[in-house]
Amino acid sequence: MIHVGVIGCGRIAQVRHLPEYAENKNVAITGVYDLNHERAEAISRQYGAKAYSSHEELLADQEIEAVSVCAANNAHAQITIEALKAGKHVLCEKPMAVTLDECVEMVETAERCGKYLMIGHNQRLAPSHKRAKELIAGGAIGKILTFKTNFAHCGPETWTVDSQKNWFFDKSKSVFGAMADLGIHKTDLIQYLTDQKITEVEAVVTTLDKKDSSGQLIQVDDNALCIYRMEQGIIGTMTVSWTCYGKEENSTILYGTQGVMRIYDDPNYSIIIEKRDGTREFYQVDQIQTNDHQTKSGVIDMWVDCLVNHHEPEISGKEALSAMKAVFAALESSRTGQKVCVRQGEL
Question: What is the set of domains in the chain, with CATH numbers?
Fold first, then answer.
């Protein structure tokens, strides 16, 4: 039995981490902490855990072997590093951290302490994405040449348990907007599907519509458009948005030498392959998660399997760092108006 603690009891913890831990027979939810102690107390009663008065107190509990870090973005690195040094394995929510130096320090600390570090990039675990990767590896569309991937919804307002204090719009806590909230998912996904790293980025990252409580445009981005070049020459676009006020978009289309693969681009089939010879293949694997339709993410089960069977997680800190480099490059490109090269293969 793995004893876990959860630091941060907001929406992502309540929708994903806590219920998925509770469903896993190899886990005991031992402790929880939140800045709002009343919230932590309520969660502790719900899951039969102890509510701690600080994250430091939780980390000092020797019974707890692993923690989920579900705090605001600006606290990810500090809490993760403290947890690793306290001898805990760490599953940290995305985005990994708010600076490249913090991301590197997280990876180095995990290696130095001999502990596992995993980041919650759940899109690669969606069943249709896993099936798509198998089909791509089997040559279903030949050599991939280009792609376009989109992730757009009406915003993160429902992803905070306190609607009066939406930390997503508070730059001091979130630091990033849609680019790191949604873009990190698709950045990681495209590297996963193509089995290639991003080496070059051009981007426009901007704020178009979202306003704060005073009626002013928020200080983080609500839209981003990126052109990515991969290490073997594949090029493609990624569009992410918090201002999609219609049906949520969460699709990826890959264009290869032998056909086109459409993933989560059709209401009836989760994968459609259009062959160069005119034939079509249809796969109904699952439906993608949306804000209104939440399904099991797969992140917790993968994480617990790593802990039980003592192996490095697929979505390790080092793997996540690669995607974060592309995100930071996109932000730099937008700021400077220049194409930015991504230094992969090094910390």
Answer: 2-122 (3.40.50.720), 125-297+323-341 (3.30.360.10)
